[in-house]
C-alpha cells in the first residue's frame, strides 16, 4: 500500500473527487445564494418594413433597449448571451418566436446596455410561415442566457407586450438606406 | 410471509456463497484454473486463490458501462456527455469543454442551446454524423399537430445554419433531430478526448496502458 503508484492513484482520485464536489457547490451558489435584480425595458423604436416573402411575411424592426444586467453577474458567471426576441401568434402557428438581436456580455462593467434605435442584425429575420403578419400583436422579450464558469446554465427573461405590426405592407422608400448591424459572430458563413 | 422471507434469504445466501462464486469465476478464468500462469504469481508468488486479474479487468469495464448506460437512461439522451469539437459557439464553449445534456419533452424555445443530429446529410463514406451544438434562434410551432420548426445558429457564426449550408437541404429542424438541451458545462476537461481524436495512436496506447495497469495491479 506504499508504492508510488498507489500513492499517485489515491492522490489523483481524491483530488478529482474534491474538484468535482467544489464544482457542484460553485454551481449551487448561483441558485441558492446569488440574488439578481435586472432592470430591463424594450420597445420597438420603428417598424421599418413589413412585406411578403416567398414563404411568408417578414418584418424589420429597430428597438429601444435599456437593460441593466450587472446584478445578474455572479462570481461563477462567464458571460451573458443577451437576445431580443419577438413572439407572436398566427393562424397557422400558435407560437412563433424570432430572435432579432443578440449580444454577448463578458464583463460586469459592460452589463448595462442602452441602445436607442437598435437596427436589426443581418443574421436574424423576423419571419412568419404564413401571410398573416399585418395587424398582428406581438411581444418583445429580452432574455439572457447565463453561461457559468462551471456548472449549470440557466436563462431568464422579461417580456413586454402591447405592440402590433402595421396593418399594411410597406417598405422603406429607399431600401439601401436601411442600416443593419453586424451580428456578434466572427466566422463568415457557418461552421458546424 | 415467513416462508417467503426465508426463501429469499436462502436464495441470497446461495448467490453469495463461496461455492457459486468460485464456480462463476472459473467461467471467466478461460476454462481451466491454474493452467495459465497468473500475472500476479510472477510478482508476489502463488498466494491464495483470489479474484483473477481478468475478472477485475472485466469488472472495471462493465462497471463503467453500467454507469454510462444509467446516465443515458436518466438524461433521456443518447449521449449525455459530449465534448465540444468546434469553435462555432465561442466565446461560450471552446474546443475541449464538456457539455451535459438533458432531453425532455418540453418543446424547444429560442435561446436554448440544442444538440442535434442530421442523419440524412451527405457524408464521406465511413464518416460518422457528429452532433452539432448550436442555439435556437427561430421557433414555429403549429396549432394543429404541434409540429415544431426550429432554426439554429452558432454564436460565433455570422450566418444561421440554414443559410450556411449546415442543414444539408432541409429548411428547418424538427423535434426528431434534437438530441437534447445543454444544461451543464465543465471547461477544459475534454482536452484528452481532443488529443485522442486528432492522434488515434494516442488512444490505442492509452487503452493498452490501462489494460496493463489493471492486469498487473495487486487488487
Key descriptive features of the protein:
heterodimer; A: 192 residues; alpha+beta; Immunoglobulin-like; four-stranded antiparallel β-sheet; 9 strands; 15% helix; elongated; B: 219 residues; Umud Fragment, subunit A; 3 domains; six-stranded antiparallel β-sheet; 6 helices; 17% strand; hydrolase (chain B); transmembrane (chain B); signal peptidase activity (chain B); transmembrane helix (chain B); serine-type endopeptidase activity (chain B)
Which secondary structure elements does this structure contain, and how are they paired or packed?
The complex is a heterodimer of chains A (192) and B (219).
Chain A (H helix, E strand, L loop, with lengths): L3 H29 L6 E14 L4 E12 L8 E12 L4 E13 L6 E7 L7 E2 L9 E12 L2 E2 L1 E11 L28
Antiparallel strand pairs in A: 1-2, 2-5, 2-6, 3-4, 3-7, 7-9
Chain B lengths: L1 H15 L1 H11 L10 H6 L8 H23 L5 E3 L14 E5 L10 E4 L15 E11 L5 E6 L24 E9 L4 H8 L1 H16 L4
Antiparallel strand pairs in B: 1-2, 2-6, 3-4, 3-6, 4-5
Helix pairs in contact in B: 5-6
Q: Give the low-confidence spans of chain B.
A: 27-37, 41-50
What string gives the helices and strands of chain B in order? HHHHEEEEEEHH
Cα-atom radius of gyration of chain A:
22 Å
β-strand amount of chain A: 35-45%
**Number of distinct beta strands of chain A:** 9
Tally the structural domains of chain B. Answer: 3
Highest CATH level, the class of the largest domain in chain B: Mainly Beta
What is the gyration radius of chain B calculated from CA atoms?
A: 25 Å
Average pLDDT, all residues of chain A: 88
Order of helices and strands of chain A: HEEEEEEEEE
Largest sheet of chain B: 6 strands, antiparallel
Subcellular location (chain A): Endoplasmic reticulum membrane
Keywords (chain A): Endoplasmic reticulum, Membrane, Signal-anchor, Transmembrane, Transmembrane helix
Pfam families (chain A): SPC22 (PF04573)
InterPro entries (chain A): SPC3 (IPR007653)
Amino acid at each position: 500500500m506504499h508504492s508510488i503508484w498507489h500513492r499517485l492513484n489515491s492522490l489523483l482520485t481524491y483530488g478529482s473527487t474534491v474538484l468535482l464536489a467544489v464544482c457542484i457547490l460553485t454551481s449551487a451558489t448561483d441558485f441558492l445564494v446569488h440574488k439578481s435584480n435586472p432592470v430591463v425595458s424594450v420597445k420597438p423604436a420603428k417598424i421599418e418594413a413589413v412585406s411578403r416573402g416567398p414563404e411568408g411575411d417578414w418584418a424589420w424592426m429597430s428597438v429601444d433597449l435599456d437593460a441593466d444586467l450587472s446584478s445578474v453577474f455572479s462570481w461563477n458567471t462567464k458571460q451573458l448571451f443577451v437576445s431580443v426576441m419577438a413572439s407572436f401568434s398566427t393562424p397557422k402557428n400558435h407560437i412563433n418566436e424570432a430572435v432579432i438581436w443578440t449580444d454577448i456580455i463578458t464583463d460586469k462593467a459592460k452589463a448595462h446596455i442602452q441602445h436607442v434605435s437598435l437596427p436589426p442584425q443581418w443574421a436574424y429575420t423576423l419571419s412568419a410561415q404564413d401571410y398573416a403578419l399585418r395587424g398582428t400583436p406581438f411581444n418583445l422579450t429580452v432574455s439572457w442566457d447565463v453561461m457559468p464558469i462551471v456548472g449549470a446554465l440557466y436563462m431568464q427573461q422579461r417580456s413586454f407586450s402591447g405592440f402590433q405590426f402595421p396593418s399594411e405592407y410597406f417598405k422603406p422608400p429607399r431600401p439601401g438606406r436601411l442600416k443593419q448591424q453586424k451580428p456578434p459572430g466572427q466566422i463568415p458563413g457557418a461552421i458546424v | 410471509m415467513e416462508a417467503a422471507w426465508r426463501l429469499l434469504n436462502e436464495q441470497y445466501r446461495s448467490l453469495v456463497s463461496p461455492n457459486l462464486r468460485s464456480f462463476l469465476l472459473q467461467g471467466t478464468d478461460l476454462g481451466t484454473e491454474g493452467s495459465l500462469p497468473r500475472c500476479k504469481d510472477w510478482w508476489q508468488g502463488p498466494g491464495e486463490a483470489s479474484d483473477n486479474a481478468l475478472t477485475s479487468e472485466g469488472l472495471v469495464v462493465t462497471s463503467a458501462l453500467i454507469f454510462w448506460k444509467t446516465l443515458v437512461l436518466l438524461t433521456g439522451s443518447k449521449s449525455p456527455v459530449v465534448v465540444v469539437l468546434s469553435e462555432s459557439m465561442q466565446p461560450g464553449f471552446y474546443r475541449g469543454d464538456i457539455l451535459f445534456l438533458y432531453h425532455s419533452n418540453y418543446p424547444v424555445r429560442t435561446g436554448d442551446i440544442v444538440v442535434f443530429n442530421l442523419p440524412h446529410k451527405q457524408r464521406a463514406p465511413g464518416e460518422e454524423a457528429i452532433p452539432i451544438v448550436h442555439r435556437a434562434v427561430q421557433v414555429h410551432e403549429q396549432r394543429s399537430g404541434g409540429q415544431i420548426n426550429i432554426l439554429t445558429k452558432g454564436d460565433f457564426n455570422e450566418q444561421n445554419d440554414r443559410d450556411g449550408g449546415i442543414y444539408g437541404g432541409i429548411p428547418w429542424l424538427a423535434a426528431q433531430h434534437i438530441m437534447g438541451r445543454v444544461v451543464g458545462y465543465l471547461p477544459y476537461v475534454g482536452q484528452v478526448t481532443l488529443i485522442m481524436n486528432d492522434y488515434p495512436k494516442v488512444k490505442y496506447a492509452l487503452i493498452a496502458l490501462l489494460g496493463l495497469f489493471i492486469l498487473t495491479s495487486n487488487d
